Records
---
Amino acid sequence: MTQDGILDGLVRQRIRGLRTARGWSLDDLAGRCYLSPSTLSRIETGHRRIALDQLAPIARALGTTLDQLVESADDEDVVIRPQRDAVRGVTTWMLTREPGPHGVSVAKMRVTRPAPQRGTDELRVHPGRDWFTVLSGTVVLLLGERTILVEVGQAAEFSTMIPHAVGAHDGPAEVLFIFDHDGQRTHLHPSP
């Protein structure tokens, strides 16, 4: 089967899957996208070619976008591979491929290095806000003149215009971070 044939079959499965997940009959979907039930049936079963002018109203009726309906099923984007930065003592798994609404990105990070010493240039300042929750271990958050221990199950949210840095406290810690655009650019860069 060709790549186009595989994608065509996948689109048909998505249409049927979204329709049935909503508990809709062919008649229900037909009424929402202004196509006949028989046309939708033939589209789902592969007995009719899918035209672009049919896909857009089907996607809209199903509450999805045309892009999501026809996106590739490449396995490469299923597995998230860690990015290790031994110098900074951080391993990062980017959980979002592209920034989400309002430019936010989500990353899981394993922090092994202790927090930097005050007075070093490792305390960063940038526009925006950072959010994180601790999944395991304890994180030291240096925030201005404050030293805050954030433990498992706790979360932190702060203005990134305050000089800040994080580090592991008494062993490795795993953290789920939410970064705005400025935070991603500042915190997720490779070490020089």
---
Amino acid sequence: MKVLGIGAHPDDLEILCAGTLARFAKEGSEVYMCHVCDGNKGSMEHTSEEIAEIRDKEAKESAKVIGATPLWAGISDGEVVVDIKSREKIIDVIRQADPDLIITHSPNDYHSDHVNTSKLVFEASYLANLKLWETEYDASTKLPYLYYMDNLAGIKFEPQEYVDITDTMDTKIEMMLKMQSQLGWLEEMHNCKAPDFIKTVAEFRGFQAAVKYAEGFVQHKMYPQGLTKRVLP
């Protein structure tokens, strides 16, 4: 399968679904990791230009851990809005990957960039398949399955499916540790140490799923996608 993870910022996929992406990669799928924003507001010490460059390098290093292809949608932090221009940027991301499956943010997440990314991915996942919607890239060849990943800390998120990430938990942590610029930021802004936070949530979802570590997901169920087949590992 071709799997596309779309997170609003560099580190969102690492926190919320990297264990599953690592499993897909380990099992032979072609994985793409897109950060919609460049991360240019995520620092207390660097300029916007500096932190955007740093986070781009970190995202590429994280993707490299599992052999994923990194993509960027070309939007600044805090500027993800639901409009035609942004929609076309996400259409082009999808067309570059031509995925069988997309994983992105839940529609009820805590950050406006996350919520609007979710909306844009929903809109673009169908439109990317339309040949007469002309952009820089050719139309995708299929309508992908769409899954929403957990919210930060699992607030108001009830998983419908779980993925056992016990064997890829260390890889998930390794990917997050590539985000060195964000480790201090997360501790200062959210009062959490990223590795501990990730393990706590994964252990809780694992308890729900009767495994050591897990990640939770909700499928966006819609016609004409087949709804009888499990596509998660």
---
Amino acid sequence: MKIQRIHIDVFRAPIEKQVVTSFGTIPSRAMATLRLEDSDGVIGWGDIWGNFPTITTEYRAKLAAFTLPDLLLGKTVDDIPEFYHGLVENLHVLAVQADEPGPVASVLAAVDQALWDLAARRANQPLCKMLNANAKDRIPAYASGLNPGDGPDVVEYQRAQGHRNFKLKIGFGEEIDKGNVHRIVDGLSPGERFFVDANQRWNLEQAIYAADWLAEAGVGWFEEPMPADTPDEQWRKLKAAVRLPLAGAENLRGMDNIETAFAWLDYIQPDVGKWGGVTDCFAIANKAIAAGKTYCPHWLAGGVGMLHSAHMLAAAGGSGGGDGLLEMDVNENPLRDHMLGGALSINNGVVDLPSQSGIGIAPDLAAIEQWRVDKIVLD
């Protein structure tokens, strides 16, 4: 593949109800897509991660436009992992000097996504089949991002839409958290599962206390109870003290850091847009499954990244799919919904992957043109 052109498109749409976490809110939904066009006119799609803080999407798009032309234009890519790791090495000093390892990692993750999508389209294969010939065609999923103000009501609504698994955000005070958790658990139907995400809210002592009552309630996993950079010793103490599975890894960067966390995490949740792209996140997925862990890709942004996550989950493990679930943000996001056009729809707790080549669709940017912020073409 010879890269001839780079397209960066940035959108931001207003929403009626903010997305709420224990550390802040998302007042609007933004998205920056990266498209790589080869010399034959074939295009691959990537998603530049950005939701917290709200200004980061536009910034990372500009960072991509600044850093990528010299690295990509005119370059021929024969081996995607080798090329991607070369990019990481090339920008290492910049990431250190600018003190921006996160933004640089997200830009390169988008490049890697786009290269894999491009290669799969050129091969006329779905991305999951390129990753693993035994990849599954359908995968289980869960409704994510349930907010503290109306989480139990959203469970009822999403159940009617086809979801059978749900995840609530906690960390808003014991009265609110316990009220929501118990109301949701009491209303679950047979076979349904329920998880919670504290968004790095607590210290060790607080996390142990919360884990105790969450285990009593029957929660399926406890996600990011402490900051991701909490010292390993404290994570090990938490693991030894709790009676329910721990989930995380979306805020960890680097293969070694995530593999180290296998010691205390039961559900491994790398984010294809924040670090690693398809190359490293898929490698982590297979390592996690081989280590007896469950791979559940994290995603809470645009539609392109969710499609990449779905394909990796379908392909992970020797027989494809493992036993993980796809995270599907059910908060209002007109950008994601309009550009996907129903490509990933839930039915009785599972989604069918689109069977076309690459990630399965050519996302419809015309459908979200009214929310465009920027358009950058580099050649």
